[in-house]
Amino acid sequence: MVDSREPAVRWAATISNTLIANFTREKLEQLLGGYVEQLLSGGVDEARQVGRSMVEHDFIASATLEHSLTFLGEHTPVTPAQLAALAAGYAEGLRDRTLDQQELSRTAAITTMRRAEAAVRASEAKFRAVFESSAFGIIVSGLKGKIIDVNEALLAMLDYRHEDLRRMSGRDIVHPDDRAGLRELTKQLIASEHDNIRVEKRMVRSDGETIQTHMAISVVREEDGTPPYLVTMIENMSEMRALQTQLVRQSLNDVQTGLPNRAQFLGWLEGVAGSKGPETLALVQVDIDGFRGVNDAFGHEAGNRVLMHVATHLRAVFSEGVAKVARIGDDEFGVLVKDPQDVRSVVALVEDFTARLEEPIWIGSHGVGVTTSVGIVARAARGGDSTDLLRAADVTVGWAKRDGKAQWALYDHERDVHDKERYALAASIPGALEEGQFRVDYLPVHSLADGSVLALEAKIVWDHPERGVLCLDTFLDQSSNNGMVVRLMHWALEAACRHAADWHLALGSRMPALSIDLPPRLCQEPELVAEVARVLERTGLPATLLRFELHEHLPALLNDEQLDELTILAERGIGLVLDQMNGGNVGVDRLRQLPLSGVKFTGTVVHGLDEGANRVEESASVALLRWATLLKLPLYAEDVRTPAEAARLAKLGVTGGQGAHFGPALSASEVSALLLS
């Protein structure tokens, strides 16, 4: 059974403002749900029925069709052929609706004319008004084909004059191959009890051109016994089919750039995955860097110019004989290359394209640079999956953006699998919290002078039922991207503060400080100060016993408001320790804006002090630690592995250390035994 509820709700939201008919939201969603089921479980015939049904339910605004085709093409697996059939059915429904309305008008007019002949001539004027103003061609003829009258629409359709047609028979303007069939149908109509029939027949213009028409033929039987006559309403199907073609084209092409749209691009991908597709393919996805910033700074017209700029260069590099180009998103383009020579040739085309973008485009007096992040996926074509191919391209573009933007990246299956596993871990954090799979361990910070415990660093540990014990670094990046790290850190902060509060009750002033990492994502939370205050109030831990460890690059990532939040924490007595100092460019000016209470070193800075260490690394470590003493802050070291490292660190002014030399992380119960024994 097709699940049509969600797409029906989203479709209803897309078109609700365009509807002329008065629907309740519930009734509209129920109707669209039926359409979705019909489209996803059927083929082009069912799609055509959906188009006709939309007209029958008064979905007759042009915006309704446009928004519906765009939505179905981009958010459902409806095929391009079905979209075309839906548009065709919609056009046919509009045609039949118009014919019905015109036929009703014609019937009313003819009835009025008959009564007018017996009563007043005024009613004939009404019929003439309908007759002459109709958009459809109308012929009034005798039963033997003699033309009695025609309207202006028919004259324009066939390019004849009144006097010409009045000297002709109806059979003269019908295509020779269709005359016998039309004559037989007319005889059957006259002999039957029915009043009208509809047929498709060809007609011939004055210049000899053949046009396909749709005819609604009605027999008018007078009550006074006079011979009946025929009234035929004629629609030019060539024009209707041109309209259908236009609707289909609009449904499969982007209005702004003129390129094929996402719906048509998906159709290409489905085609190359078939048994008759190429052996190999390359999919190139191009994302414009900072596109929203251009719109915000210079307006949407400037954004449109950027889109056209990129589209023009894509067309020039990936010519029709080489590849197919489409716009597949607001700032995204897709390129499909069939049977590329090799990956290197595709990369060469991409580099040619990016090189052409180096010339800025001028918006007023501003020379605006345009850069793109590009993902390249090359693989076998036949038997593939279009959805998976697009996902791979999107993932690859994400790598290019994370690696610094304005560059291309090549799809790596192993990296993708690794990332998916990490994203799956990050997504399952809420369930793992509910099931109690997380715990907080503690890595003590020991005094390098006497070995006493100066602090306890909280470490989040995940006892995963399938992957074993996992540390936070395994899934920190992905959980930061999806926001799950916020929930996890709130839980860990409260759990660690509760443990520390219990130890503080027993130890009093001898209680070591509680230290915990503060990831950059937490610093972006507007309620950081309030949340920390709530945790301290609930657990009873004094603020002076809590300190946060900040990654060395964090200060450069923070804006002024976020720096103010950290300053407020420090003013309330919470310590801030700059963590993972490893000899890089820290940015001293930015550090001065943070009220730090300590600095922690790691990596080569610590290991450069070991026995037998490289002399260059040793001198660099010594110089950095001597510089750090100028900050007049307590210095700490992590990942201390040997007694030699610990001794050298102590001589250089480092207060405390942690790592393999001092022992592993401890559980909460082991910390209790250590502190309270």
TrEMBL record:
What are the residue boundaries of the GGDEF domain, all occurrences included?
279-413
The PAS domain covers 123-193
Matching SUPFAM superfamilies? EAL domain-like, Nucleotide cyclase, PYP-like sensor domain (PAS domain)
**CDD domains from the xrefs?**
EAL, GGDEF, PAS
Q: What region holds the PAC domain?
A: 197-249
Pfam families, alphabetized: EAL, GGDEF, PAS_3
**Gene3D superfamilies recorded:** 3.30.70.270, EAL domain, PAS domain
Q: Which InterPro entries match?
A: Biofilm_reg_signaling, EAL_dom, EAL_sf, GGDEF_dom, Nucleotide_cyclase, PAS, PAS-assoc_C, PAS-like_dom_sf
Q: Which SMART domains match?
A: EAL, GGDEF, PAS
Domain EAL positions: 422-677
Instruction: Quote the protein name from its UniProt record.
Output: PAS domain S-box-containing protein/diguanylate cyclase (GGDEF) domain-containing protein
Q: Which organism is it from?
A: Lentzea albidocapillata
